[in-house]
Design a protein that fits this description.
Chain A is mostly beta strands and 106 residues long. Chain A is built from two helices and five strands. Chains in contact: A-B, A-C, B-D, C-E, D-E. The interface between A and C is large, with 41 and 38 residues.
């Protein structure tokens, strides 16, 4: 998993039925420099990551993103109609971050 | 998942039967700099990504790409003959993008 | 898997039920330079990695991190109530490191 | 998936039985610069990728490589004795490329 | 998969039971420059990769590493007691390399 900030949204009308009702967010992963108190390098060469969200993460919030099976489990268990293990997404918000701390040993 | 632009096509006659009728596209992932309004860095060192498409994405269109099981689910559910969970692809277009927005908090 | 040092913690109140009781750690992966005795490059552009822990790894300790199914197996088998194969995490501590050695052939 | 050129071969006598008869190839992934007509950056820092092949790809040929389950499906379905879903490989040639084109919109 | 050299060992007493008896190795992935005869760039920013081994790879030997399900299959099938598909590792040695060759077309 990785720590990221929600920076935007993606809209699509041509997509899989299973994606209906699932919001697609653009997120910016935090780099280790961001975490460690150094001036933030915004990693301009980093791919633009898109992830599914059903927790209601808003723009500017910090989130934890998981990939793969974990992302599909997260989305499936949160939707009203239960079991959708085959939703065609590979990244999802699994937690909205209240706070994070990097210790003195760093 | 990541946001990408369709830039080309790959043709192959020596391939798995399961790939017959599935178009193979070349895509260019957007970098965070591309999304944020800075001059686009075209990430020349980035691997040339190939993905399967059955949504009909055309060259120059923006798409959302998923990897792994999500890609196979996407391809399987869209094909006329239904269940092909074992198609040997690991990346596919899961949405054609109408619009994306990066907020002011960035 | 990769070798990393525990550098911090993430707290979240909005998350999946399955994540209750599982600690989320921030870790800094070791680079090959760190291992080989050269001055450490702290890889400031590296994504901030978040991983689940039920082994009780403390800040400053060295750990081995696994991704994907391996991470879910690790977390599932360690929790009191046994089988939780669908916990929505994709990275976990699988070992707390006593010692590592890089040989003379390097 | 990604586009790559076959550049060499790996020989091993100490390996899993399931790998007997499967050729292990060294491939060089194409970068976006290679695709776009710019002078090729050979990405010297890129890991040396090894992939399984049962399609008969020869040195110098362009191929499409898939990772993970897709790779095992590809290898399993091509071998004479059918079902070998548990072959311990994570990358395989899924298509030998006749031609690829990058459009004018790039 | 990727080509790597064994450079060290990791010892841990706090780990999963399933990892008992499985050696954890530190490996240095070969870069394309290493393969192609150019002066080796040791990729100091590369993460320190840890992989499981039951083939008996020694320090300084070249190996092929596979990730994910392939790694678990490799470890499971080699251990005396057979079926351990849920061992919490995501990388393993699947072949010890006798020789590799990069062709003239490169």
């Amino acid at each position: 998993m990785f720590l990221a900030k929600v920076i935007g949204t993606v809209w699509s009308s041509v997509k899989w039925d299973e994606l209906g009702g699932i919001k697609l967010l653009l997120v910016r992963p935090y780099s280790l420099a961001d975490l460690g108190g150094k001036p933030a390098e915004k990693a301009p060469d980093h791919d633009g990551v898109v992830c599914a969200d059903v927790l209601g993460a808003g723009e500017g919030e910090d989130v934890v993103i998981a990939y793969g099976h974990a992302a599909r489990v997260a989305i499936s268990e949160m939707l009203p109609d239960g079991a959708k293990p085959n939703v065609p997404i590979d990244a999802a918000v699994v937690a909205i971050v209240d706070r994070y701390a990097v210790g003195e040993s760093e």
